[in-house]
Amino acid sequence: MAVVLVLVVIAVGSVLFHLLSPWWWTPIASNWSYIDHTLVITFWITGVVFVAVVLFLAYCVWRFRHDPGRRAAYEPENRRLEGGLAAGTALGVVAMLAPGLFVWHQFITVPPDAAQVEVVGQQWLWSFRLPGADGKLGRAETRDVSPDNALGIDKADASGLDDIVIEGGELHLPVGKPVKVLLRSIDVLHNFYVPEFRAKMDMIPGMVTYFWLTPTRTGTFDILCAELCGVGHSLMRGTVVVDSEADYQTWLAEQPTFTQLQAQAEPVGTPVPAEIAQAPGER
Amino acid sequence: MVDASHDGNDVITPAAVEDVELYHPHSWWTRYVFSQDAKVIAIQYACTAIAIGLVALVLSWLMRIQLAFPGALPFIDADRYYQFITMHGMIMVIYLLTALFLGGFGNYLIPLMVGARDMVFPYANMLSYWLYLLAVLVLVASFFTPGGPTGAGWTLYPPQAILSNTPGGEWGIILMLVSLIIFVIGFTMGGLNYVVTVLQGRTRGMTLMRLPLTVWGIFTATVMALLAFPALFVACVMMLFDRMAGTSFFMPAIVEMGEQLKHGGGSPIMFQHLFWFFGHPEVYIVALPAFGIVSDLISTHARKNIFGYRMMVWAIVIIGALSFVVWAHHMYVSGMNPYFGYFFATTTLIIAVPTAIKVYNWALTLWRGNIHLTLPMLFSLAFIVTFVNGGLTGLFLGNVVVDVPLSDTMFVVAHFHMVMGVAPILVIFGAIYHWYPKVTGRMLNEAMGQLHFWITFLGAYLIFFPMHYVGLVGVPRRYYEIGETSFVPASVHDLNVFITVVALIVGAAQMLFLFNLVWSLRHGREAGGNPWRATTLEWQTPQTPPVHGNWGKELPIVYRWAYDYSVPGAAEDFIPQNQPGTLGVTREAVA
Question: What region holds the Cytochrome oxidase subunit II copper A binding domain (chain A) (predicted)?
Answer without folding.
Answer: 112-254
